[in-house]
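Can you give me the bound-state structure? Components:
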Amino acid sequence: MSDLNTFREETRAWLLEHCPESQRQPIVKSEQIWGGRNRKFPSADAQSWFEAMSDRGWTAPTWPTAYGGGGLSAEEAKILQQEMARLGCRPALYEIGIWMFGPALLAFGTEEQKLEHIPKIVRGEIRWAQGYSEPSAGSDLASLKTKAEDYGDHFLVNGTKIWTTNAQLADWIFCLVRTNPDAPKQQGISFLLIDMRTEGVSVSPIELISGESEFCQTFFDNVKVPKENLVGELNKGWDVAKELLKHERAMMSSMESMSEKEEFSLVDLAKQTLGVDAEDALNNAEVRTKIAALDMEMQAFAQLNERMFYQHKAKQSDPRLPLLLKHIGTKQLQRKDELLLEILGNKSLSWESPASSHTEHTVTRNWAFDKAHTIAGGTSEIQLNIIAKRALGMAS
Amino acid sequence: MSDLNTFREETRAWLLEHCPESQRQPIVKSEQIWGGRNRKFPSADAQSWFEAMSDRGWTAPTWPTAYGGGGLSAEEAKILQQEMARLGCRPALYEIGIWMFGPALLAFGTEEQKLEHIPKIVRGEIRWAQGYSEPSAGSDLASLKTKAEDYGDHFLVNGTKIWTTNAQLADWIFCLVRTNPDAPKQQGISFLLIDMRTEGVSVSPIELISGESEFCQTFFDNVKVPKENLVGELNKGWDVAKELLKHERAMMSSMESMSEKEEFSLVDLAKQTLGVDAEDALNNAEVRTKIAALDMEMQAFAQLNERMFYQHKAKQSDPRLPLLLKHIGTKQLQRKDELLLEILGNKSLSWESPASSHTEHTVTRNWAFDKAHTIAGGTSEIQLNIIAKRALGMAS
Amino acid sequence: MIFNEEQSMLQDTVRAFVQEHAPVADLRAVRADVNGPSYNLELWNQLVELGLPAVALPEQDGGLGFGYMGLLAVLLETGKTVMASPLVSSVAAATSLIQLAGTDDQKSLWLPRLTSGEITATVAVQEGRHYSLSAMQTQLVGGEIKGSKSMVMDLAEADLLIVIAKTAEGKLAAAVLESSKADFDAQRYCLMDGRKYSDLTFTQTSVAPGNILGEGADRTAEIEQALNIATIATAAEMVGGAESLIERTVQHLNDREQFDVKLATFQALQHRCAEMYCQLELVKSAVFSAFARLDRGKDIHKAASQVKALANDYYQHISNEAVQMHGGMGVTDELDVGLYLKRSRVCNQLFGDAAYHRERYAKALGV
Amino acid sequence: MIFNEEQSMLQDTVRAFVQEHAPVADLRAVRADVNGPSYNLELWNQLVELGLPAVALPEQDGGLGFGYMGLLAVLLETGKTVMASPLVSSVAAATSLIQLAGTDDQKSLWLPRLTSGEITATVAVQEGRHYSLSAMQTQLVGGEIKGSKSMVMDLAEADLLIVIAKTAEGKLAAAVLESSKADFDAQRYCLMDGRKYSDLTFTQTSVAPGNILGEGADRTAEIEQALNIATIATAAEMVGGAESLIERTVQHLNDREQFDVKLATFQALQHRCAEMYCQLELVKSAVFSAFARLDRGKDIHKAASQVKALANDYYQHISNEAVQMHGGMGVTDELDVGLYLKRSRVCNQLFGDAAYHRERYAKALGV
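Here's the bound-state model for the whole set.
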């Protein structure tokens, strides 16, 4: 029996022993475990499962054991993932420290920085936020204005970051700041770590059109940041950001499946709704056509993903195809939302009115929230630019 | 009674006397009278009506009598137009010399040039063609390459012009040519008149996707053009072209009504077609929606035109609205063509097969021909640029 | 097809008033007060002082004689700031119903109080999820109403409630109830446009014969006409909103720089804005045409469907584009664009969605 | 969902052959010869030598066993140059019909001659203006065919004509006629794609029992399956055409300068090309999925409608955009884009237009 087979069997046995039955049910958003000084566990089972995993470093399976990681090879990590999926084990920890920041710090951080921050990420003791976007920068990230001035042993940071997800819950934030105002855009930017408890840091939530808010604006008013919190070289923060960005896409897609947003099948909801109300059958010839048209395209999108999967398996991946996913997927999602609104009619016009059901509220809230999907993480306009240039080779 | 009222009565009487009954029927394309050395009249009535009009200079009512024009004031010309419309008199002469070139020559030509060319236009003796576009220039007219080199008493012209409408029938052509290759684009261009009989001029027809062709490509191979055929100053041809362009739009819209293209009502044709074939009623729920949707938009376009008319009457014209017409109108026309094709099904796939009727052939030919409408006379892309900048004031 | 001098002056007056006194912030205040009125009563009283409840009606009915084109001028302006008011529920819908379908006695009883602004009224017509006259179930038989109604506007503020129902013969009838005294169940709720709506249930609500418009005569045609008026009035408000959204979006793109150039210089955005502007002027022309037909006494059955279907689809498109072009800030509640977006979806459902009106229009075309 | 090694090699072979021997100019030659054959017979013979008529069928039926995915590989490539051939009429439609619906005797009578390329066959199914199986009127009762058929492909070149008709019980039946000997009226004509089609009238055409596929057994399901195969084969050709059009358009925009910059740098054009490319990869994925299902023996009723509706709409859009982006030259016959444009409209009508397939798909969804 090969080593990997041994590893698989041992892992399976270990998971069966340490993952309580309750932690092998599909997870709901409210039971996700996020890190942080003030973290809370939804249940004793959740805490014991988390601690078993983090003790082995399996919250970050491939990270070096020197920093508390699991030290697994890529093959072993894959087996761990497969076995967890097979048993239905919940992810032990949700953290952007795990998904994005940790890998970048491992690549660019000093030994001291790694020893200081990585173990706390693995053990979920510190929750990280991301400070990239600024109110006036939009898609042009490199035009950021938050500045960090050199004051000898520390930087003095002034400015503001927006879309800092759950910043009110975060302990630390990693930021892109301008350290050389005279250099061309991307060349005067550094990557800085800031403790949210530092004097001068404040957070205010952003209310979205959907009424929800997990986003914040974070303000820095004469915030002193020790020099040792600089990651990578001075004015070379863009390189760190690029490394981090590589992990963001992977995270975005895993977030999708993890966030467990309550979604509805277009066809199922249409059948329920159009079928029940006899009067609605009268004017749904057009709606019926729209349902068929959209469902066909959504199937084609699923088939595109499936085709990419088989290409990947055969090591014949077409590098152009991944460039299409975000634009197509988000546009379809918004079309589906609009069509569901049309089908639900006046019951889809609120996420709180007593005249509508939970399902109707959810459809409506999704509709509003999903407007952000064609903006966040690279606007559709940027995606189309990229497709034109990189997939089609159009001159720029 | 005012002078204008007198003029109206006299004009009406004169028209009644000189316009034969046969020339007061709606005109069909084959009976339009175009000028030219080889012009032919479709009937004796047509000839007598043409000669009566041209003798009075009323083929060009407002042009000075010194050059053979009618010498009418704007008010009188309007009355003539109204009375002709009231009696249903056919236009006496179709000529781009009348519509576009004459007005520009009157503004920029020398006395000799006017005396030479204007009377022949008024009397329909010379047919003019326009030589602007070039194969490699597209919408960027000013990048034209046809060159006219100075050889003392004459220019030597080499190059090619495309989309020269009916050039095979024209006697003369007015051209934009490059006389200074070193100047920035628009500043090295001159406006030149060329006799098509000159050695080195040749014409070849362009076949369109609709199988039709009234367009040509015209070639100039070492063509000697006397210096006196330069209109306006050397290298200032762009000014003449701009003057001419002002008259082009007016012509384009009057051409629309004059060209009498056989058009079909979407709704009428749909009723005939969908009603007759019982089997087609089965899958037309979607088509029915499309008909309603497009008809609504076509109505709105008619209402936009109507609103502009009333604004104009009240001297409250919104200058942004005319900028919209070409884009909206041509797009709707193409949508209508596509929908008619969809309705007619496999009977709409040819303009010559014995399996289809005259109506079906015409619909199909229109479909193909109308693809040119969003390209010719300013592409839709240029139109949208203009709307964004001039109507909406978007920065450029 | 265009405003006459009086109508233009009226538009100027209303524009000045709305821009100064009823900015979008006013709607936010209405929205925040979830148990409060559906519109700012004080602002409404000021509109009453301007005579707006009487604007459309002829002088013999106590109106100011601006014609419905006058009401159009008003709605285009209030739409620009998504101002909440009973202009659609009371002025366009209920007042037209009484004027068109009422007997002389009924008109003289109610119209003066409506045109003076002493009272307001609203209409209960929609049922279930989607507005559909042909699918209407509520019955008015033997002097009693039975059935349920959804999405009734401004009910708590209205003195009169006009219920549209079907007679035993399948004709339409309109019953005028005093909303505070009549016997029915009402559930009041906010929708995402920040305004208040009610769902009603009538188990056996009695109506006196004198409270049925026309007092027994068949008023189906008049009721349909009044609802068509309410339909195009809704569309008029939507056109005002769409116009304002395009202005705001162009302004944003002209102000905002990215990659060292103004966003407005990006050709893809220019073309999309130009397309939106084409849509705006198309639907605006259709709206002007419909109101002009109305004032000329012509039928507006087909026109109403044309106008509402176009307004629904175009405003939906324009509000989506406006949010997208405002970027990240476009999805925050801080910016006003989201309020237009939500109002557009509510308006979509008032007096018929686009599919309903396209179906009705296709029928009118005879296809 | 992707080609295996053999299928990829087959695609490479066909690509090399088509690009070298069957450029778009070949279709022009076919078109110019209005009374000539519907495709270049010499080129077809070369495809026969490559074994293409046998590509999809399993070895026990005389096929090469590439599966239908092999046929997909072929059609994507021939589609790229809008090559005229009987691949859809004979290989995808008629051969599948016999293989699926024929008795063992019928299969051994006809399949070897079809797979060897000795003969070709075609199918008469469409009637009137629009393809619709449910609306089919042609009857096969008492051994006689009565009815008419439209838009039959490649009839003059075909040795066998398979007529789809309804039985007295309303089931589908397929009758195999020797096209040169059978008694029916045919009107042959060119369509704008340059190929030849025929409209047929059957007054009382006799069919021997042995010439009815299945010889009396109900073959409705098999006939529908074969027609679904022809449907997705048509879509596969369309995807090849659309792919080539996008390449040509991008090439043109990269080559052509206007206002001193390459056309390809205009953002509005970039975005429109990017959208076209998204459409292409979506429909291509759907086509791969449908052929893969077919080879796995799964039902493709819904998949066929999905694929054909998407191919119709996308290719229509892409061909319109390609003409527009080629500017003035795009509307001349000199450029090839117009040939793709016209072929796309002909393909739209073959085996069902988009509205037909959306309707069929909606029914399959159960809405």
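A couple of observations. The longest helix of chain D spans residues 220-255. Residues 121-211 of chain D form a domain with the Butyryl-CoA Dehydrogenase, subunit A; domain 2 fold (CATH 2.40.110.10).
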